[in-house]
Amino acid sequence: WEEGWRNEDLKKLLKGDEALIELLDTPFSQRKIEQALMKKSIPGTHKEGAFNPEGAGSK
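Request: output the structure for the sequence above.
Response:
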């Protein structure tokens, strides 16, 4: 969610939510949960831009 946004703008948007601001200030490589979930998926979800309406179930 950070890509393309300036940190100053994100911090303004977060309106003082210290937990989220701390997460924002933490480099991605040090975010343990995000690193653990990277390249994982949940049934029924799709990665943005990867949806194919011609996929399963269509003829």
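The mean pLDDT is 79.
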